Amino acid sequence: MPVVDVKNLVMRFGSATVLKDIDLAVESGEMVAIMGSSGGGKTTLLRCISGLHASTSGSVTVDGINVIEEPELARTRMGMVFQSSALFDFMTVFENVMFGVRRHSKEPLKDQRQRVEIALERVGLKDEHHKMPAELSGGMRKRVGMARAIVLEPKVLLYDEPTTGLDPITTYTIDELMARMRGELGITGLVVSHDVTSVMRVADRVAFLHQGELAYSGDKEGFLKSEHPAIKELLTKSSALEFAR
Ligand SMILES: Nc1ncnc2c1ncn2[C@@H]1O[C@H](COP(=O)(O)OP(=O)(O)OP(=O)(O)O)[C@@H](O)[C@H]1O
Ligand SMILES: [Mg+2]
Question: What was the pLDDT predicted at 241?
Fold first, then answer.
């Protein structure tokens, strides 16, 4: 059974249909990239999967839980890495990661603290735990966001543009970290990204949304050879054609 299963998903805002009959199944341990034109519906799809938006019709299940009927329960299976990192600026790195643990875990404080320490170690921020967000680089902020997303050991990680705005070297380290989350922890991933190079590195499959429809869903090789005009345009403008050879 797929860990994430989206079926006939339709999302409307007023009279605008933003997602049109989307089907997407993600198997355990897989990493799927959601790409697409601006306004194509990527963030909306991620929000429907995470239970932040109730879809107009269709179904979404995560780890067998119906996200529309039981969003709170489903959210315990997911970690989300936000584009903006969304850190609390008045809390230290440690406190930022601890925040959700205090809210959602009933373990003794000692075990909760250990959880946070392990998560920070996993993202390479063990020695930065006392710092304030303002003292961190953009890449470090992303890593705090990742520690926060994994600290409660989710089955699924949802990344919204984790590398947008980062330089190529930092992008590489974030990509490596995403690959490790998957390799070491076996976490299933969905990543919204514009970055073709990054997607080629981390993803197994690509789902390309164009004007609310899945213009392509399949392996990377097929994606690179797609004749869809929006995909061709993205590939040409990303100058990632070397991958297509
Ligand atoms: N809360 C909302 N209310 C009304 N319309 C919305 C809402 N959220 C998104 N939309 C509309 O849905 C469409 C898809 O938006 P979405 O943010 O999912 O696109 P995207 O693919 O993530 O684009 P980008 O690459 O620019 O981030 C857009 O036309 C947008 O205006
Ligand atoms: Mg978006």
Answer: 52
Q: What is the pLDDT of residues 81-109, one digit of tens each?
A: 887 778 999 999 999 999 999 998 999 99
Q: Across 40-147, where does the E strand assignment appear?
A: 57-62, 65-66, 78-81
Looking at residue 10, which CATH number applies to its domain?
A: 3.40.50.300
pLDDT score, position 225: 95
In a domain, residue 40? The reply is yes
Residue 53 CA, closest ligand 1 atom number = 1
Structural element, H or E, at residue 43: helix 42-50
38 CB within 6 A, ligand 1: yes
Indicate which atom in ligand 1 lies nearest the CA of residue 41.
Answer: 18
Beta pairing partners, 219: 205
Residue 157 lies in a domain: no
Q: Is 41 in the pocket of ligand 1 (CB under 6 A)?
A: yes
Domain hosting 198: range is 1-44+53-71+194-245
Give the C-alpha separation, 121 to 128, whole Å. 10
CA-closest residue to ligand 1 atom 24: 38
pTM here is 0.90
Q: Is the CB of 40 under 6 A from ligand 1?
A: yes
Ligand 2 centroid to residue 130 C-alpha, Å: 32
Say if ligand 1 is within 6 A of residue 210 CB. Answer: no
Give the chain's domain count.
1
Task: Output the furthest CA–CA distance in the chain (Å, rounded).
Answer: 55
Kindly indicate the confidence band of residue 245, based on its pLDDT and cuts at 50, 70 and 90.
low
